[in-house]
Amino acid sequence: MEAANGKIWLIERQLYYKQKEVENNLVRLGRIAIPQLMPIIGSDDIYFYRNKMEFSFSDMRWLTPEEIKKADEITDRNGLGFHIAGAWDKVLDIEKNVTYKPTHLMLSD
């Protein structure tokens, strides 16, 4: 599995934590005795793999530190994107989402 920008470690960490979550849910919470849990296998497709996303809209999008330094130049605060972790009142505007596969476009083919 090859990741962009050499960040294969990020994918490996995600798989590690997913594995721990599954083990916790089945063994500790579900009290299911599992002799050997099969490892989670990562996909070779690391881009455009999601078929559903939940986006948020805002007229006061979250500003990056670079944008704040140029505050007098900001004319558009509208944003479409994701909530900043732990802050439901802040939306990070995105221009391209490399995890979402727009399946509605596939239906028209």
What does this structure look like?
The chain is elongated, with a radius of gyration of 19 Å. The protein has helices spanning 8-29, 65-69, 103-107; strands at residues 56-58, 79-84, 87-93. Helix content is 29%, strand content 15%. A 3-stranded antiparallel sheet has the order 1-2-3, with no helix packed on it. With 109 residues, the protein is an alpha+beta fold. It contains 3 helices and 3 strands.
The CA-CA distance between the termini, in Å, is: 29 Å
Query: What's the mean pLDDT score?
Result: 77
- Percent range of helical residues: 25-40%
> Strand order, biggest sheet?
1-2-3
**Number of contiguous helices:** 3
Contiguous runs where pLDDT drops below 50 for at least 5 residues: none
How large is the radius of gyration?
19 Å
How would you sum up the global shape?
elongated
Number of strands: 3
- How is the biggest beta sheet arranged? 3 strands, antiparallel
Give, in order, the helices and strands.
Answer: HEHEEH
Structural class: alpha+beta
Relative strand content:
5-15%
